[in-house]
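User: Please run a holo structure prediction.
Assistant: Happy to. Please share the sequence and the ligand.
User: Here you go; the ligand is shikimate-3-phosphate.
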Amino acid sequence: MTATLELEAEIEEIVRKQTAAAGSAPKGIDRIVLTGFMGSGKTSVGSVLAERLGWRFLDLDAEIERRDGRSVPQIFAASGERGGEAHFRKLETAALATLLGQRSVVVALGGGAPEELGNRLLLEQTPRTAVVYLEAPLETLLERCEQDDTRTGTAVRPLLAEAEQRFAARRHLYERISAHRIETAARSIEAAADAILESLSRAS
Ligand code: S3P
């Protein structure tokens, strides 16, 4: 392909995305936040959803890692003031506040973010924000986490060993902060993204 043809193809792609976005962007909403337990598909569904809307996809864990310079497991494993779950939760709240300041974004939360009252208040008080709960039974969630670990060759979720207790403690919080609930066990990633758009357009 010549440089001119490449440029034309790029422009066509940008116009295609903008046209698609104008047609499907939910009315009155500037950001969609995905919540749910580890393995619920927040990152994979969120990326597809952002692509569908022509919006940016932002992952809260990735933002924490970018700002801190350490991976999530490294932060959890560190001792002293700059490590452990309590420190991770502080970093999480600061990163969430920053991400919620952006527009035309799909944000994937970490599974534990709704446990913090500060995070729940941030979500509740940010205007034009739709929170969507991606649901699945615990067995499905654990299977997906295991598949992720096999794919990456590492155990990337420090709290997976406590999954049962954490799931029980968090379920009602996911429900409480969300205006939309999408069952993901029987849906593909693409179908879950479509279901979110349908649910948002029904509500608008
Ligand atoms: C956590 C979930 C992880 C990550 C951290 C803590 C949790 O995110 O934020 O390991 O408390 O459930 P994912 O839900 O994206 O795995």
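The longest strand covers residues 129-135.
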